Structures are given as structure tokens and as C-alpha cells.
């Protein structure tokens, strides 16, 4: 019997509603979406895999929800493309789940709860297991096993149950949203982590023919033949300046993903030079000044009102610093005061993103809020 081969487009980490240091990215996200749609139609894909973090926040603004609905409906109802999606750590599972009882009738499969992961989507030559982001506590509740304290332990139980559903005559694809790194064979007794966060050992995933992941924004973050991140659609921090963003095309006969680049509407750049050169027409006329810039000044002396003066030429400055030392980041009292008045949680989130190249998880953010509240209460005592 002839088996119908399929082609998927793999994408993740849209982060709709995200801002880049205060600058709205809706136009950039809309432009990226239109390129995804065009690639999907040109390549005649049989479905789109969306591996989590459709939204940037668990409580997105009404405008962001409208944007997400327009995009998903356009792909699914207008273009008649099946969607295979999961909730990520930035998504609200309950918000995403609204409407799921009738989604499957249009070929829209959206899993937001752990229990749904054990019901594979049956396609001609593959089984698709859609595993939404989950914390170990969810696995403890589902399996009624309090010993599942860490993510690798919980994932081992999840995969064992999934394998019980494997059809012997089909390939098995997993869609997930988590860190994958290392091995269960490591000699260390400490829990495997990446950037301080729990990770899933890659050998736990060995029985799947392919694993399509979201969560890490760099598509080259993991060098594994059968486990691939598609990466984010846009550059969300200066650490991503050199990265090419896009989607992956996956044929079920070879399971060898091919990268397709997404061109940004407005790119993100870094400039390192003197203040006077930045103001020189011969220099700035060569720059795409409608784009976003992170600027590092090599000047040794403070420059009054430096940010306002630079933004007259480069309106989308997302970061400004000096090579001299961190203390000269703010060049006058007003700028320093603005920094000190920022919400400490926002400062922590920005710092963590710069260091770990990832957002704080919900559990980490909850811990930070509790710690900050404790400090405030102790300071009042």
C-alpha cells in the first residue's frame, strides 16, 4: 500500500505582543507572518507546526488577541492549512484553549494540557504528539506520583506513556516547548540545567523520529540530527543580532529540515563608535535609520543629553552604553533617575534576558515577585 508523504512548516516563538525595549513590534510581526504564509503556500505544505509561545504574555492585550486570531484564522480557514499547535510557557493555556472543542473540525489541533499529549494526531504516515509546556507538578498530578520532582523525571514518565501509543507502521513526531540538552548518562548527580533552568536530556527523546521544539530563540542552539528548534521569528535582544530568523520545512520521507529565512521589516543592528561619527551625515546616511539600534559609545567623556540627541537621527535606539565602564551608561542625572525609578522586576527580566538569552519562566517570575515582596516588607520593619 502506498503511503502518502507529507510536508510540514515548523515555526515557534511568535511572542505576539512583545515589545523591544518599549518599541511596538506589531508591524514587524505582521510582516513576518505574511512571509510564513507565503512560504507555506509556495511550498504546498500539508500543515503548520507551531511549537508554543504564540503570545508573549499569559494575559495578552485585546489588540494582541485580535492579531493572533486573525493570523491563525487566515492560515486555517482562508488558506485551509491544518495547524498543529501547543501552548508555550508564555501562553495562557486556558486562554488559548477557548474554542478547542470545535477546532479539530477545521484541521486546527491545539493542545494546552498535559493529558492531551497522549492522544496523537493520526496522519497518513506519521503520528504527531503535541506536548504543551508543563511544570513537573502537572506530571505529579496526572500520574499521581509525587516522586516526579524534576523535569527530566517528569519527561521520562511522559515519554514512556507516549510510546505505548506508537503505531509500528508510522513515524513518530513530537512537538514540544522546552530546553533539550545533555544526556541522562552524565556523571554529575546535579540536575541538568541550561542557563540555570531545567533541561530535558536529549537521549530521552531518542525513540522519536523527529522532535520539533520551541522555547530557544536561536535555531542553532542545539546540534542534534533529529531534534531541532526553528527559533523565533524576530530578533528580541542584542544577543540575537547575528542570527538569521526563519522557519523549517520538514518532509516526512527524509525528516531532514530545510531552513527558510524570514527577512525582518526592520532589522536590529549594533553600532560601536564615537558620538561625533554617529552625528556625521557621511556615516549616518549609510545606516538603515528606520531599523533598531544598540549603540556603544567609545567616548571617554560624558555627553550631555546624549540619548535625546542621538534619537533625532536614530529614532529606534533600544540600548545605549559605553565601552569605558557600566557606570557611564547614564550621562546625566535625569537619565540615572529614570533608571532608578524603573520597576525592579522589569530590570531583572531585562538583565536575565541579556545574560541567558531567554525570558524568565512563570515559576521564576513568581519566585522573584515573592522575594521582592519579602525584601520590601523587611525594609519597612
Automatic annotation (TrEMBL):
Domain of life: Bacteria
All residue ranges annotated as the Calcineurin-like phosphoesterase domain in the record: 6-218
Quaternary structure and interacting proteins, as annotated: Heterodimer of SbcC and SbcD.
CDD domains: MPP_Mre11_N (cd00840)
Organism (species): Liquorilactobacillus ghanensis DSM 18630
Pfam families the UniProt entry points to: Metallophos, SbcD_C
Keyword Membrane included in the entry's annotation: no
Purpose: SbcCD cleaves DNA hairpin structures. These structures can inhibit DNA replication and are intermediates in certain DNA recombination reactions. The complex acts as a 3'->5' double strand exonuclease that can open hairpins. It also has a 5' single-strand endonuclease activity.
GO terms of biological process kind: DNA recombination; DNA replication
Keywords, comma-separated and alphabetical: DNA recombination, DNA replication, Endonuclease, Exonuclease, Hydrolase, Nuclease
Residue span, Nuclease SbcCD subunit D C-terminal domain: 265-355
Name assigned to this protein: Nuclease SbcCD subunit D
Homology family: Belongs to the SbcD family.
InterPro entries from the UniProt entry: Calcineurin-like_PHP (IPR004843), DNA_Repair-Maintenance_Comp (IPR050535), Metallo-depent_PP-like (IPR029052), Mre11_N (IPR041796), SbcD (IPR004593), SbcD_C (IPR026843)
The keyword Hydrolase is annotated on this UniProt entry: yes
GO molecular function, one term: endonuclease activity
Amino acid at each position: 500500500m502506498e503511503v502518502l508523504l507529507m510536508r510540514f512548516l515548523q515555526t515557534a516563538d511568535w511572542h505576539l505582543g512583545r515589545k523591544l525595549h518599549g518599541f511596538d513590534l506589531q508591524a514587524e510581526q505582521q510582516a513576518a507572518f505574511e512571509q510564513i504564509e507565503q512560504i507555506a503556500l509556495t511550498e504546498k505544505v500539508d500543515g503548520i507546526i507551531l511549537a508554543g509561545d504564540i503570545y508573549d504574555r499569559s494575559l495578552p492585550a485585546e489588540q494582541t488577541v485580535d492579531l493572533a486570531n486573525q493570523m491563525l484564522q487566515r492560515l486555517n480557514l482562508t488558506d485551509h492549512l491544518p495547524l498543529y499547535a501547543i501552548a508555550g510557557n508564555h501562553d495562557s493555556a486556558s486562554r488559548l484553549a477557548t474554542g478547542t472543542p470545535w477546532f479539530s473540525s477545521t484541521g486546527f489541533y491545539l493542545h494546552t494540557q498535559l493529558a492531551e499529549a497522549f492522544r496523537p494526531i493520526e496522519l497518513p504516515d506519521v503520528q504527531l504528539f503535541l506536548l504543551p509546556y508543563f511544570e513537573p507538578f502537572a506530571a505529579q498530578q496526572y500520574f499521581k506520583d509525587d516522586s516526579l520532582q524534576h523535569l527530566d523525571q517528569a519527561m521520562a514518565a511522559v515519554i514512556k506513556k507516549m510510546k505505548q501509543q506508537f503505531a509500528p507502521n508510522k513515524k513518530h513526531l513530537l512537538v514540544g516547548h522546552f530546553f533539550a540538552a545533555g544526556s541522562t548518562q552524565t556523571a554529575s548527580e546535579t540536575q541538568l540545567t541550561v542557563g540555570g533552568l531545567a533541561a530535558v536530556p536529549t537521549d530521552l527523546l531518542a525513540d522519536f523520529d523527529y522532535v520539533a521544539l520551541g522555547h530557544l530563540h536561536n535555531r542553532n542552539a542545539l546540534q542534534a540530527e533529529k531534534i531541532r528548534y526553528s527559533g523565533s521569528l524576530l530578533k528580541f535582544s542584542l544577543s540575537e543580532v547575528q542570527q538569521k530568523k526563519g522557519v523549517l520545512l520538514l518532509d516526512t520521507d527524509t525528516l531532514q529540515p530545510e531552513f527558510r529565512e524570514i527577512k525582518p521589516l526592520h532589522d536590529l543592528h549594533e553600532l560601536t563608535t564615537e558620538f561625533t561619527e554617529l552625528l556625521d551625515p557621511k556615516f549616518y546616511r549609510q545606516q538603515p535609520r528606520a531599523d533598531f539600534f544598540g549603540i556603544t559609545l567609545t567616548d571617554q567623556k560624558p555627553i550631555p543629553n546624549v540619548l535625546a540627541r542621538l534619537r533625532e537621527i536614530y529614532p529606534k535606539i533600544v540600548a545605549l552604553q559605553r565601552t569605558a565602564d557600566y557606570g557611564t551608561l547614564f550621562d546625566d542625572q535625569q537619565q540615572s533617575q529614570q533608571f532608578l525609578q524603573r520597576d525592579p522586576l522589569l530590570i531583572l527580566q531585562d538583565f536575565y534576558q541579556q545574560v541567558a538569552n531567554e525570558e524568565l519562566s512563570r515559576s521564576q517570575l513568581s519566585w522573584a515577585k515573592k522575594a521582592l515582596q519579602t525584601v520590601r516588607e523587611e525594609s519597612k520593619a
